[in-house]
Amino acid sequence: MGFSAADWAAISLSLQLAAVTTLILLMLGTPLAWWLARTRSRLKGPVAAIVALPLVLPPTVLGFYLLVAMGPNGPIGGLTQSLGLGSLPFTFWGLVVGSVCYSMPFVVQPLQNSFASIGERPLEMAATLRAGPWDRFLHVVLPLARPGFLSASVLGFAHTLGEFGVVLMIGGNIPGQTRVLSVQIYDHVEALDYGQAHWLAGAMVLFSFLVLLFLYSIPARRGDAGLRFSA
Amino acid sequence: MTAAATLNSAIIADFSVRLPGSKHEAGSFDLRVDERLPGAGVTVVFGASGCGKTTLLRALAGLQPIESGYLRVKGETWHDEKESLPAHRRPVGYVFQEASLFEHLTAAGNLEFARKRAAATVNAQEVQDVIALLGLGELLQQRPQQLSGGERQRLSIARSLLIKPELLLMDEPLAALDQTRKQEILPYLDRIRAELKIPMIYVTHALDEVTRLADHLMILSQGRVRACGPIREVLARIDVPGILGEEAGAIVEGRVTERDSEWHLIRVDFEGGQLWLRDSGEAMGQQLRVRTLARDISLSLEADQASSILNRLPAEVAAIAEDADPAMALVQLVVGAPGETRLVARISRRSVAQLALSPGKPVWAQIKSVAVLY
Fold it and tell me: Are A129 and B114 in contact (CB < 8 Å)?
């Protein structure tokens, strides 16, 4: 046996979705995590709580609200339609929006921990060595936060790969467009095709295990706080 | 040098800094400075912990916002009402108490970080000179984690020199080191002072550590400047009681003029008198700076020949002041006439009364020990 053509399509779609989502999350998550790690604003608590919401909410709740928001009468839907982008639900980009929300804490929290653990001193030191704000961020913060970026990317990618509830709510089950791995497994099981389901499910277990094994094997270094929140 | 040139080479600091009080402390801390520091040599800022000396340094570096006032360094305005130069535009080398190296770079990488961002081009020879000056040749490929505390601090000092600073700020660079490591670093500081013409502001709570380096001394207490001036003048003052405490004591500068090989002593002549010191191999004619702690000087009305004290100097009482300790008094003495050399003795108030000491009274200063600074 092995993977069918439909299985391969689902795997490829899942990988694309995870890659695009991780990239977007790193771009959005880095400034957000930087702000959360350093601000003394009263907004810090509420913002951190919102970012962490997907950790505790059932994916169906998140998916439901996203579906409503992206619908023709929702704020996101209204925006995409007025921009001529059409409607997001049941499209690949709709899944991207959903995944970004869903995997946000898995990227922001490792980054935030890693930024916080750098502390003020290396930045002050760099400032007295004539490094400006961008210079400091690029040449001091980024290298020191490398373990954090690694954890954030791997966790964000793996978590998006395993997403199911949000996808089903806002993406449905369109082959090649929104039928990702987890949905494909669900379909196999519905059809009582346990053999095919085993292949995909087994591959997911193996992949997830290897990812976590990799993360936990990174030598513990000062400043590496990547897995603090989930460990 | 003309008056204008002096002004342009000085560090003119007239500002205040306010630190918000933490949740646990009532009120806030404020620092107020209005001083002109020389744009050459070593200025030591001395004070107990919490007196504001680190805050002063951070304000000079631009790491701590100045609340009001201005700061001009060698004719350049670094801060006034209109604008404030951010830290990364100020040509200052800053050495923190902990070496604060970039752990993601090698020793060479740390130096390179500074060289690339220097205020002026630093050529390969200059880099080699700094590496040699701080004895880092063997360590360049090491990671900061592999270096000892003393090596880390030397690397940190070298790194601060490579930005070609116009002002070197040192925040207790020896405080985190044990005694052996301190002795390891001090010669390097001597060399920086002797070989580079960069003014240095050196903050410490251990005065004896750096009296040999200092040209200028500022005493800070509770955010206020209690005394500021050439170190000999400040240490000869008695109107800042208590702040120096056990460390009170004047500095005498002189020249080696005689060697007594039988008793292993040397004679140092200074303006107004002479001192006999233990011979540690100093060269004839060598300039020496020695320190006489106030607690090691006793006074007597007669030259007591039947005493083991080696150094007895005829002196005149210049002034008497109360010490922070109610049992003690500080007596300022002028040695020799007209005598530019001043000593300070710390004796009990009862002795002051018994000897009926008052300004103008001739006494003999018996100096129990003398520390050679250099």
Answer: yes
A190-219 in b/e burial notation, b at 16+ Cβ within 10 A?
A: eeeeeebbebbbeebeeeeeebeeebeeee
Beta bridge partners of B35: B13
Contact status of B155 with chain A (Cβ, < 8 Å): no
CB contact under 8 A, B163 and A122: no
What does the pLDDT average to over B73-78?
89
Query: Confidence class of residue A227 from pLDDT cuts 50, 70 and 90?
Result: very low
For B32, the token pair is 């107020």
**Could you tell me the pLDDT band of residue B22, with boundaries at 50, 70 and 90?**
low
Whether A129 contacts chain B with CB within 8 A: yes
Domains of chain A, start order: 5-217 (1.10.3720.10)
Picking from A71-85, A213-227, B143-157, B198-212, which range would have the lowest pLDDT averaged per residue? A213-227
Say whether A125 and B102 touch across the interface (CB within 8 A): yes
Q: What is the C-alpha separation between B175 and B99, in angstroms, rounded?
A: 11
CATH class of this structure's domain B249-372? mainly beta
What stretches of B38-166 adopt beta strand conformation (E)? 42-46, 68-73, 76-79, 92-95
Q: Is the Cβ of A132 closer than 8 Å to some Cβ of chain B? A: yes
Question: What letter would DSSP give residue B161?
Answer: H
The ipTM is 0.81
- Which of residues B365 and B305 earns the better pLDDT score? B365
Sorted by where each begins, the domain ranges of chain B are 3-239, 249-372
A138 touches chain B (CB under 8 A): no
Answer yes or no: is pLDDT of A126 > 90: yes
Q: Which residues of A touch B110 (CB under 8 A)?
A: none
Residue B265: helix, strand or coil by DSSP?
strand
For residue B325, name the pLDDT band (cuts at 50, 70, 90): confident
User: Omega into B338 within 30° of 0, i.e. cis?
Assistant: yes
Task: Indicate yes or no: CB of A128 within 8 angstroms of CB of B159.
Answer: no
Residue B49 — pLDDT band, cuts 50, 70, 90?
Answer: confident
CB distance from B62 to chain A under 8 Å? yes
Is CATH 3.40.50.11290 the classification given to domain B3-239?
no
Q: What is the DSSP string of B29-63?
A: EEEEEEEEE-SSSEEEEE--TTSSHHHHHHHHHTS
Q: pLDDT class for B241, splitting at 50, 70, 90?
A: low
Q: Taking residues A130-152, what's their average pLDDT?
A: 93
Query: pLDDT at residue A222 above 50?
Result: no
The DSSP output letter for A229 is T
* Cα angle for residues A110, A116, A117 (degrees, 5° grid): 90
Asked if B117 lies within 8 A of A135 by C-beta distance, the reply is yes
